[in-house]
Design goal:
This protein has 162 residues and is an alpha/beta fold. Helices cover 35% and strands 23% of the residues. The chain has a single domain, classed as Phosphotransferase system, sorbose subfamily IIB component (Fructose Permease, 3-Layer(aba) Sandwich), CATH 3.40.35.
């Protein structure tokens, strides 16, 4: 088992992740990987409150999460890994973690982003990180909720103007 799904969603644990995705995947653990959140007790508490009952939660930085995954710590579990940015996953790949597929959910619009879909807005750094992931052989898809069709993210990313 181990990692059964990987999602980029800036909101991390919220209604779609907590209810729709976790239920659909039958995940036994949500793993939030973020080097900033691990420093904030308030954000960690909010994530603990948002997780579904009966589902375990890990909130880790990239190095600790990668070490735990590579050590097989979660092999007997069904882990749903959630991050805010593709760069987090690039760091994990550079640490030796292998991902088959990454699902892109919500990436919010900001002054520095380009709008690609209704829910996906990408910066230059995000664009570069997505290409690093794809160059490493990772399939990247876009799917907001489980009932939506799965879209190839490489096709969506072609609309980005760098």
């Amino acid at each position: 088992m181990g990692i059964i799904a990987v999602r980029i969603d800036e909101r991390l644990i919220h209604g779609q992740v907590a209810n729709l995705w976790t239920t659909k995947l039958q995940a036994s653990r949500i793993m939030v990987v973020d080097n900033e959140i691990i420093k904030s007790d308030i954000q960690k508490t909010a994530l603990k409150l948002a997780k579904p009952a009966g589902v375990n939660l890990s909130i880790l930085g990239t190095k600790k999460s990668s070490a735990n995954i590579l050590a097989g710590k979660y092999d007997s579990q069904k882990v749903f890994l959630v991050v805010k940015k593709p760069a987090t996953l690039v760091s994990m790949v550079e640490e030796g973690v292998k991902f088959d597929t990454i699902n892109v959910g919500n990436m919010s619009q900001k002054d520095t982003t380009q709008h690609l879909t209704q829910s996906i807005n990408v910066t230059d750094d995000d664009y570069d990180a997505f290409h690093k992931l794809m160059d490493a052989g990772v399939k990247v898809t876009a799917q907001m909720v489980p009932s939506d069709p799965i879209k190839d993210f490489a096709g969506i990313l072609k609309d980005y103007k760098k």
